[in-house]
């Protein structure tokens, strides 16, 4: 199971770790921590040293009820971050967390290698065209609505069945456009209640029927800290536990705030399974 990222074949049979870098002032866990060049570079250097395979940059918070950010502002936040990182760490594989085609286009043209779309094209009908044109790996997440409305859209008859249909339709469209490298993200915390998040985790291996790599993004999310009656800052242990469960269910990429601990999960998992 390989993806082609900027001409490099990445073997996802061995799970990989994607470190999160939010260049937003309002993300739920680390918003506002990386405001200037030295802070950004320091965090990227730390994540790469700890073993991150990818760095995922976000310039628009997708937390529930997140405030609107204009397309131009998102580009003005993200492109300088891409340029800065690649100037100092030119081999870094950068993923861009955006649902806007123009942001994806600007990011790819400035050196990004992966697009991570929380809406799988639902919020911008030009996204698939951009991915097809530039032929970059595309992470498609399951969500309903948008960050402002998603938490009111949690009614499902059969959540796994509906998610599988959603993904199968997205894969069909992507394949029709010649998009080769697809990754699925179940979208923990997006248009799902806490109980639904745990049901998706429990049955996550069912997504393997689509024969595509699955990304698990559960780092410090409310399904952890609300269940444990704590706060995001104290949710690392719970994150590590659920990341391990995700690996046993077939996850090929862990998207995390804490790279060192996730890499340790993968190392120990590989000792058992490889």
From TrEMBL:
Keywords: Folate biosynthesis, Magnesium, Metal-binding, Transferase. CDD domains: DHPS. Gene3D superfamilies: Dihydropteroate synthase-like. Pathway: Cofactor biosynthesis; tetrahydrofolate biosynthesis; 7,8-dihydrofolate from 2-amino-4-hydroxy-6-hydroxymethyl-7,8-dihydropteridine diphosphate and 4-aminobenzoate: step 1/2. It catalyses: (7,8-dihydropterin-6-yl)methyl diphosphate + 4-aminobenzoate = 7,8-dihydropteroate + diphosphate. Its cofactor is Mg(2+). The keyword Transport does not apply. One of its GO terms (molecular function) is dihydropteroate synthase activity. SUPFAM superfamilies: Dihydropteroate synthetase-like (SSF51717). Its EC number is 2.5.1.15. It holds the Pfam family Pterin_bind. Residues 15-267 form the Pterin-binding domain. Catalyzes the condensation of para-aminobenzoate (pABA) with 6-hydroxymethyl-7,8-dihydropterin diphosphate (DHPt-PP) to form 7,8-dihydropteroate (H2Pte), the immediate precursor of folate derivatives. PANTHER family: FOLATE SYNTHESIS PROTEINS (PTHR20941), FOLIC ACID SYNTHESIS PROTEIN FOL1 (PTHR20941:SF1). NCBIfam families: DHPS (TIGR01496). Belongs to the DHPS family. This is Dihydropteroate synthase. It comes from Flavobacterium artemisiae.
């Amino acid at each position: 199971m390989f993806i082609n990222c900027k001409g490099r074949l990445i073997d996802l049979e061995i799970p990989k770790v994607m470190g999160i870098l939010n260049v937003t002032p309002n993300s739920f866990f680390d918003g506002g921590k990386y405001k200037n060049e030295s802070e950004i570079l320091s965090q990227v250097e730390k994540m790469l040293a700890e073993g991150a395979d990818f760095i995922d940059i976000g310039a628009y918070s997708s937390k529930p009820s997140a405030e609107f950010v204009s397309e131009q502002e998102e580009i003005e936040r993200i492109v300088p971050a891409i340029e800065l990182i690649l100037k100092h760490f030119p081999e870094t594989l950068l993923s861009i967390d955006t649902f806007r085609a123009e942001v994806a286009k600007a990011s790819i043209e400035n050196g990004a290698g992966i697009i991570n779309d929380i809406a799988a094209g639902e919020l911008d009908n030009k996204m698939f065209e951009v991915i097809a044109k530039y032929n970059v790996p595309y992470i498609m997440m399951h969500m309903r609505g948008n960050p402002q409305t998603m938490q009111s859209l949690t009614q499902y008859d059969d959540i796994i069945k509906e998610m599988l249909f959603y993904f199968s339709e997205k894969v069909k469209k992507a394949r029709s456009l010649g998009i080769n490298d697809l990754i699925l993200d179940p979208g923990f915390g997006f248009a799902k209640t806490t109980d639904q998040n745990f049901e998706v985790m429990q049955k996550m291996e069912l997504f393997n029927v689509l024969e595509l790599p699955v990304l698990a993004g559960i780092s410090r999310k409310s399904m952890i800290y609300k269940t444990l009656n704590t706060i995001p800052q104290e949710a690392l242990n719970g994150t590590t536990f659920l990341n391990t469960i995700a690996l046993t269910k077939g996850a090929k990429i862990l998207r995390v705030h804490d790279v060192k601990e996730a890499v340790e999960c993968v190392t120990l998992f590989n000792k058992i399974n490889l």
